[in-house]
Amino acid sequence: NQFELYLFWLTQYAFATRPLGKATFIKSSFDLRYHKDKNSDIYRESKILFEPDLVKKQLSEIFKCRSALVSKLKRSGMNCLEFDVYDSFPLNFSLKNKKLYAKHLNANMAYKLTQQHWGITQPFDRLNAHRHQCATYITTELSECHADVWLGHHIDGWDFSAPESTATISMLKEVKSAQGKWLKKLGFKLIKSPLI
Fold first, then answer.
1. N or C, which end of the chain is more exposed by having fewer CB within 10 Å?
2. In angstroms, rounded to a whole number, what is the distance separating the alpha carbons of residues 125 and 105?
3. pTM score > 0.85 for this model?
4. Percent of the chain residues topping a pLDDT of 90
5. What is the DSSP string of 14-80?
6. Residues 156, 25: contact at Cβ < 8 Å?
């Protein structure tokens, strides 16, 4: 679970997401990540970003770890209730009555586990402090327009997928580069699966 918690914070900072919850949808494919945070009354808030290399490598380790966990538990006679080993969403596992349960790790649960296991609290006791830190970083490093792309702000003319967008693929590449530098600056690194 702490390995999954690490993935949670890595992806929160990599993609400057809103706190993960029931309305969150994540889909990784090739080098891209589709991330839907929420729906407002009129719009569906979502973004497409390149997946930083560190995130891709860490996800690979997570998938290996999940597969190894399922194999080890099945060999010991335990039941593993169905879950997608290749889900990009961080998971939280629990064992009850010789059954392994997996559910998506939401922001409230992650915040509590981070305090409990690592003794770390979010600045200002807010679940979205990381998002504001990301916005400040990229605005300082590149521009407010890059921040809009990274955060998924749907501001006229800068939403990458809008029909009249002035954002470009090179802007997405610049954001990916900034994401990698940001993660390194924060001290994130690849952690190998503890079960391999």
1. C
2. 19
3. yes
4. 52
5. HHTPPPP-TT-EEEEETTEEEEEEEE-SS-EEEEEEEPPHHHHHHHHHHHHHHHHHHHHHHHTT-EE
6. no
